[in-house]
Amino acid sequence: MHKRGWLIPVLIVAIHALAILVRWSSLAELLPAHFDLQGNAGGSMSRNMLILYPLAGAAVCLIAYVFARRKPKLQTGLIILASGICLVLLSSTLVSLTLGTMPIFMLAEPVILLLAVIAFLRCIVKARKNNR
């Protein structure tokens, strides 16, 4: 199993945590959340909730890594899927850190997730073909 590929989702999680850490002291206790396409907030959340996003990304990476050890032929797909999920989590955090001023992050989320799922499904199909 090639472990270097796992650096990509792990690096995304590390950048995610670093982005929060860098901005932490300047963040208000309550942050705007659930932005519309114009960047207007429709709710709020505690800044402490931001910590859960990179933790969720780390959990996704760990689960994907454990699964890849059991199904090595799916490793590439799992790396792509984990990376996509971590990018979506990072994107959500960036929307909160920029206070909704950059809704492009929100628009990127469904595209990133769709591409990651498609790549993962392609890897599953390829693995099945190689088993025949």
Short characterization:
The chain is mainly alpha-helical. It contains four helices and two strands.
Structural summary, described in words:
The protein has 132 residues and is mainly alpha-helical. It has one domain (4-131). It contains four helices and two strands; from the N terminus they run αββααα. It has helices spanning 7-23, 52-70, 75-97, 104-131; strands at residues 30-35, 41-46. Strands 1-2 form a two-stranded antiparallel sheet. Strand 1 and strand 2 form a beta hairpin. Helix 1 packs antiparallel against helix 2, helix 1 packs parallel to helix 3 and helix 2 (52-70) packs antiparallel against helix 3. The longest helix has 28 residues, at 104-131. The mean pLDDT is 86.
Structural class call reads mainly alpha
Termini separation: 21 Å
Proportion in helices: 55-70%
Strand order of the largest sheet: 1-2
| CA-based shape | elongated
Quantity of strands, as a count: 2
How many helices? The count is: 4
Query: Any idea what the radius of gyration is?
Result: 17 Å
Taken together, the total number of domains comes to 1
Proportion of β residues? 5-15%
Q: What summary fits the major beta sheet? A: 2 strands, antiparallel
Brief descriptors of the model:
132 residues; single chain; 4 helices; mainly alpha
